[in-house]
Amino acid sequence: MRSIKLAVLFLIATCVTTRAQTPAALPAGYVGSETCKICHEDIYNSFLKSPHDAVETSAKRGWEGRACEACHGPAQMHIESPSAATIRNPSKLAAAVADKICLTCHLNQPTHVGRLESSHAKDQVSCTSCHKVHANGPNGLVLRKPAAINEQCASCHSNVWAEFQRPNHHKLPEGAMSCVDCHNPHGSIRPAMTQTFAANEPGCLNCHGDKRGPFTFEHGPVRFEGCVACHEPHGSANPRMLARPEVRLLCLECHANLPTVNTTGTIGVVPPAFHDLRSPRFQNCTVCHQKIHGSYVDRNLLR
Ligand code: HEC
Ligand code: HEC
Ligand code: HEC
Ligand code: HEC
Ligand code: HEC
Ligand code: HEC
Ligand code: HEC
Ligand code: HEC
Ligand code: HEC
Ligand code: HEC
To answer: Model confidence over 132-178: pLDDT tens digits?
Structure first.
């Protein structure tokens, strides 16, 4: 064992640096990435293709020539007695501690990656639960294919995935869209981490711009409560993804002086007396109230 160790140390000492011809002097305790290559060649080689190689090659971040140790910590001890116990592995740390390592570089970036108010950060889902640092390719560090993202999210949110199996849903099971079209996995200023494209603007409007307004005659809940006052974007039995199976049941939750449970606490005006709600003619409210999201010309949202 001792002779192996000596041999290794000799190797390390004489190791010819191939990438940086004149490596900067390393701070005490650090051994540099080239050293890791001796024993972890596969990981070292795949690292060259990873976006994090920028840490290794650029002087900008202060880790030039020792990128491995930016995440794994100074490795002097590890190369003196190489074992899993002598080196830091972020995926074995508590989530908050692991996140802190990543955030030394990723905090406060324009993409909101470093938002710590996300439910994930609060609930111990660390960066490394979703990002495999040493993987390359389409299933590598960042998932980009909708189907792969959905699979990852669904692995923990199986109840939400079940909602997408309802008859009417956004086309996630078909792989045409993904959870991150509507949610920012890193957190957002809005509840439920829904995507913001601009302040106060739900992500829905990015694709459904015709519902944006501003309308001359707005429908109160569209503006003040948002789309989920009436829709279940994960999936619904209703063909328009309404939160209730029939449109009238939805409307009457807010537009009746009946003692029904009004889940939103928003009461609208009661329909005028000529609305005979027992008659089928009046049951499909949106046959007449066609501009249900807001109208430019009619305060009763009829056209
Ligand atoms: C002399 C050979 C040698 C060198 C050089 C070496 N390692 Fe290791 N490393 C090992 C051995 C042996 C293990 C234990 C493998 C096991 O338990 O399966 C290990 C394990 C690891 C682990 C896994 C720890 C865990 O908890 O699973 C990490 C991370 C690691 N090394 C990082 C590094 C980094 C970073 C460098 C360069 C700074 C480096 N190693 C240099 C031999 C080496
Ligand atoms: C951006 C942070 C980061 C950098 C940089 C980094 N690693 Fe890792 N490494 C990790 C994480 C996190 C894990 C745990 C596995 C995972 O989640 O992908 C890991 C795991 C490992 C392991 C354990 C084997 C395994 O696959 O689990 C070894 C060995 C290792 N790294 C070596 C290296 C070497 C060598 C370098 C430099 C070429 C390096 N790492 C650079 C974050 C990093
Ligand atoms: C020493 C600084 C540093 C540390 C620590 C670090 N990163 Fe990075 N990370 C970078 C740089 C540099 C890039 C390259 C892209 C860029 O310039 O932003 C990057 C890119 C990424 C990307 C995006 C790649 C892409 O294709 O857009 C992800 C995901 C990522 N890092 C995750 C992590 C995770 C997870 C950790 C913690 C385990 C971590 N990083 C730790 C510096 C760092
Ligand atoms: C719940 C899963 C999840 C967690 C936790 C997570 N990410 Fe991500 N991250 C993703 C997904 C999915 C993408 C791709 C987003 C896209 O394509 O819009 C991504 C993208 C990124 C990117 C690329 C830039 C971008 O916005 O496209 C970086 C950098 C990154 N994450 C870093 C981090 C860091 C650092 C942490 C921990 C603080 C973290 N991520 C936690 C899922 C996650
Ligand atoms: C490792 C497990 C895990 C993975 C993977 C994961 N999540 Fe989560 N997610 C959680 C936990 C735990 C919470 C917090 C508890 C809760 O609300 O269920 C959470 C919370 C959330 C919330 C917020 C709920 C709220 O009301 O604030 C959203 C939205 C969410 N996740 C979306 C996603 C998306 C999108 C992905 C894929 C990019 C994803 N999650 C991947 C575990 C995970
Ligand atoms: C079309 C947009 C959209 C897509 C796609 C979407 N969500 Fe959501 N999701 C929302 C909205 C809006 C809310 C907020 C609901 C509310 O406030 O009542 C929400 C709420 C949530 C919540 C918190 C409340 C709950 O229902 O548990 C979680 C967790 C969640 N989504 C996870 C996911 C996951 C995982 C995926 C992908 C499989 C996904 N979402 C895809 C729009 C979407
Ligand atoms: C990435 C683009 C995208 C985003 C973001 C998005 N949608 Fe959609 N939505 C679509 C597409 C495409 C369809 C129609 C095709 C289909 O059946 O999936 C659709 C269909 C719908 C329908 C049913 C329309 C019909 O009659 O078939 C409703 C309701 C809906 N979306 C509401 C929402 C709400 C609410 C949000 C925000 C929580 C949202 N959407 C976010 C793309 C998007
Ligand atoms: C007050 C309840 C209510 C609110 C709030 C609401 N919708 Fe709707 N939405 C409906 C009803 C009812 C229908 C079905 C209309 C019909 O039967 O033709 C519908 C239909 C749709 C459709 C499919 C038909 C079409 O007109 O394109 C889309 C897409 C849609 N809504 C998106 C949204 C978006 C995006 C938001 C948030 C900006 C939103 N809705 C807010 C009640 C609402
Ligand atoms: C979440 C509660 C809610 C739901 C669901 C809802 N509305 Fe409304 N509606 C309101 C509120 C609040 C107003 C504004 C009342 C006011 O201005 O005093 C309003 C206004 C209206 C108006 C205009 C009346 C006026 O004088 O401003 C019509 C017409 C209307 N709603 C029809 C409908 C129909 C049809 C449905 C079902 C597709 C529906 N609403 C679903 C809350 C709701
Ligand atoms: C046959 C067409 C028709 C149908 C179906 C219909 N409405 Fe109306 N509704 C009207 C007309 C026309 C007015 C405007 C009356 C007026 O000018 O005072 C109106 C007005 C309203 C108002 C505004 C009352 C006010 O005081 O401002 C509400 C609320 C309303 N309807 C709700 C509903 C609901 C809920 C349904 C479904 C259960 C429904 N309507 C179905 C034609 C219809």
So the answer is: 999 988 888 999 999 999 999 999 999 999 999 999 999 999 999 99
- Exposure string of 207-219, with b = 16+ CB inside 10 Å and e = fewer, is eeeeeebebeebb
Distance 234 CA to ligand 5 centre (A): 14
Instruction: Please state whether the peptide bond connecting residue 214 to the residue before it is cis, i.e. omega within 30 degrees of 0.
Output: yes
Distance 130 CA to ligand 4 centre (A): 7
CB of 204 closer than 6 A to ligand 4? no
Residues with Cβ within 8 Å of residue 263, at least 6 apart in sequence: 253
Distances from the Cα of 174 to the Cαs of 116, 138, 160, 204, in angstroms? 32, 18, 15, 19
CB 242 within 8 A of CB 236: yes
Sign of the CA dihedral 87, 89, 93, 99?
positive
Q: Over the stretch 6-50, which tens digit does the pLDDT of each residue have?
A: 444 444 544 444 454 445 688 999 999 999 999 999 999 999 999
